[in-house]
Structure formats: C-alpha cells, structure tokens
Amino acid sequence: MTQVIKRGGKRRQIFSPSKIKKSIKGAAREAGFSASKAERVVNEVGDGVINFFKKKRVVKSVDIRKSILRRLNRKAKAVAAKWRKFEKRKAGKF
Fold it and tell me: Residue 31's domain spans which residues?
C-alpha cells in the first residue's frame, strides 16, 4: 500500500487514485472542457500518474503534483493553467 507524505513532511495518508482523478476532472471542467473531453484527459493523465505512483511504497505529494502538471502541460495546457490558478487561490495568493 502506497503512503503519501504530505507537503509539511509530518503527515502521511494512503494513496488515493480517486483524489487524483477528481482533481484533474475539476480542473478540466473549470477549463471549459465537455464531460467527455474532461474524462479523456482524466484517463490519459490520471491513469499514467496513478500507475506510476501506486507501485511505490512512499511518495511525496509534491512529486505527484509535479507529475500531474508535467503531463497536463503536454496533453491539455488549459487544464494545467486552471490547476495552478486553483492552487494560488487556495494558498491565498490570488
């Protein structure tokens, strides 16, 4: 079972593929993608990230984020932009 080390380094939680897919889907919908196009991006990007990290024992949440954004930049730049915009808003920098 894969453990995810959260950003602060002290907390851990179980790797959740559904969180990854939900996040990508939300960013795709925010970018104006149709449901079918959003689902395609979720599958192309999410499945690759999930398959890579689920084989690990321990991963950092930061590494998962970087991997998702790298793949989104190649497949759907608009979705990557919405993801970053959400992060800034969440951090209070927007």
Answer: 3-91
